[in-house]
Prior knowledge:
Blueprint: E1 3-7, E2 28-33, E3 42-45, E4 55-60, E5 66-71, H1 80-87, E6 99-103, E7 112-119, H2 120-131, E8 139-142, E9 151-157, E10 166-173, E11 176-181, H3 186-190, E12 200-203, H4 208-215, E13 220-221, H5 224-232, H6 248-260, H7 266-308, H8 318-332, H9 341-351, E14 361-364, E15 367-371, H10 377-388, E16 392-397, E17 400-405
Parallel strand pairs: 1-4, 4-8, 9-12, 12-13
Antiparallel strand pairs: 1-2, 2-3, 5-7, 6-7, 9-10, 10-11, 14-15, 15-17, 16-17
Amino acid sequence: MSTLVISIPPRPRLRAGAPAPAAAPAEFDYVLSGDGLQLGRSGRAAPALLPKAEQVVAVLAAADVGWHRITCPKAPAARLAAALAGVLEDAVLDEPGLLHFALAPGAKGGETAWVAATDRAWLASEIALLESGGLRVDRVVPSAWPDAPALGHFHEVEAGTGRAAGLALTWAHPEGVATWPLQGGLARALLPQPLPADARFTALPSVAAPAERWLGAVVRVITPAEHALQAARSLWNLRQFTLAPRHRGLDVVGNLLRRLRSPAWRPARWGLAALLLVQLAGLNLAAWQQRSTLEAKRAEMTTLLQAAHPQVRVVLDAPLQMQRETDALRAAAGRAGDADLEAALEAAASAWPEGEPVQTLAYQGGRLTLAVPDWDEARIDGFRQALATAGWSVEAADGNLTLRRDGGAEPRT
């Protein structure tokens, strides 16, 4: 899945003797990866000119995100943001209402979890600026987060008006994230000694040499593009609560489709395609077997018809032609059929009340109609029930009873 990683510049801050922060930059550093793992092209462009990708991830500078470890409140999703603000009210320097909070992936109520905090208005404006260029920011991730093993990253930070950029160390470890300037002794005093055995250190190319002199050890040189792409693989997503993307249901479906199209899911796609082909082949085989069985039964019916009635030369509908030929033989022998008047009279006589006269009758289309103007509902129901067991149905309307065979059998012609 192609991924566009955009680095959001550090949030402007007021410093003593410094002018007011400038407006948001018109251009952003980016890196484009074809699979989210390997570096592609990188550069700097305005939001409208940024390349298109299946997934867009924005990366925040380490100093723009604060970290707090709390017991996650048990609150409904609609009230969780307010609950977090209440829990962190005494732990943050700014007003909780001005901050945006995001829970760690997989955090559950009642369990200890990390919470990321950043300026809400600033982050919302950065997202809006990016999306004004036609992008959809799927995730916002920090460039460093509490994790093990510990990771130290050397980079540059702004030092103020008229001063060169300074060297800083961002130290991310299981107990939190901190960024210290290397000028003075603060960073050396706060960095744990001895260092954890599994600690790793990286540095941007521009600060690699002074970083190694300060640390007294070799560090791995990593470009800004590699650092941003590495951060984009984080499981964190700060787009939560009021900053969550709109149309979340459609986004979930879109993200799922993009993930399924990624190279990592290629074996699953091939497996699914093979399964569909097997199912299709199985359905075709079952349909072929059903057609073969049906053709065999039709052939048997045709053979039976021609054996019983050799005069039939052309067979179009074996069951219908068999019935017609049988009815013709029955009529020639003088025997009444199920749809003839005799059968209907015999059925009516079997259930007719003794001594009850028949005033008028009519027979048409396999239906026998008898006039019974004086019958009440009880007598009609008794007559109907008596004939129902013999396969006849009785309809009563306007003082008449109409008998017909169940299934609507019509006289054969």
